[in-house]
Design goal:
This protein is α/β, with parallel strands linked by helices and 229 residues long. It folds into two domains: 116 residues, 3-Layer(aba) Sandwich (Rossmann fold); 97 residues, Arc Repressor Mutant, subunit A. Helix content is 38%, strand content 25%. A hairpin with a 2-residue loop joins strand 4 and strand 5. Helix 6 packs across helix 7 and helix 6 crosses helix 8. 32% of the residues are buried. It binds calcium ion. The site of calcium ion has 5 residues, from strand 4.
Length: 229
């Protein structure tokens, strides 16, 4: 899951970003409305975390813009204003949820999980291909119920493939799911992560494989059970 965090207080932004990354999420940050608008235009995020009081205006004005690019983009407002009219205004303008500062990171994670479970959203709680299961709320993969430990980038590759499984995932889409704006991307780095992930899957006995569709992208497919052949 790739998150856009719009927050102007550097300490808050750094702490939130680190906590979300520790929980397996990819996070981009924007300190004001104009940089946030620029980031939204790329339409690569699965969730918007939005502070309201920003140096160049009210974060609430970004909700409409965000929905222009992705109609079902979940939005959680992070606000110092606990006053009821402000909260109602945010929800009226289409925010899915809000948290009043200060809040515990556990509470934010719980709200993100709750939003991810909503059936209208793209994100599903779990998905399976063969004997491989991916849990979108914990960002963990299991083979026959046994946890498959994966480094962060491999996990992000697998998550992106699971989100679109049954379809070929274009290389650029996969790249956007695995790297944030600050990452320096080497041209063959994505292929390296994919090939390591394929090996991890094979070594763990997963009956799922990543097919490389030349010039187009990648496809996660069930692999026939060799023991039955
Ligand atoms: Ca602020």
């Amino acid at each position: 899951m790739r998150i856009l965090l719009v927050e102007d207080e550097p300490e808050m932004a750094i702490a939130l970003c680190a906590a979300l990354q520790r929980h397996g999420m990819l996070v981009d940050t924007a300190p004001d409305l104009s940089q946030a608008a620029e980031a939204l235009r790329q339409n690569v995020h699965d969730l918007l975390l939005l502070d309201r009081q920003l140096p160049d205006g009210d974060g609430i004005s970004l909700i409409r813009l965000a929905r222009k690019y992705r109609a079902d983009l979940p939005v959680i407002m992070l606000t110092a204003r606990g006053a009821l009219p402000d909260r109602v205004a945010g929800l009226d303008l289409g925010a899915d949820d809000y948290l009043v500062k200060p809040f515990a990171i556990e509470e934010l994670l719980a709200r993100i999980r709750a939003i991810s479970r909503r059936p209208s959203q793209l994100v599903l709680p779990t998905a399976t291909v063969g004997n491989l299961l991916f849990d979108f709320s914990t960002h963990e993969a299991f083979v026959d119920g046994v946890l498959l430990p994966l480094p962060r980038r491999q996990m992000l590759v697998l998550e992106a493939l699971f989100l679109r499984h049954g379809r070929t995932v274009r290389r650029e889409v996969l790249q956007e799911s695995v790297y944030d704006f600050n990452d320096e991307i080497q041209s063959n780095a994505l292929d390296a992560h994919v090939s390591k992930l394929r090996r991890s899957l094979a070594d763990s006995g997963a009956r799922a494989d990543i097919h490389v569709i030349r010039g187009i992208g990648y496809l996660l497919k069930e692999r026939p059970d060799v023991r039955e052949e």
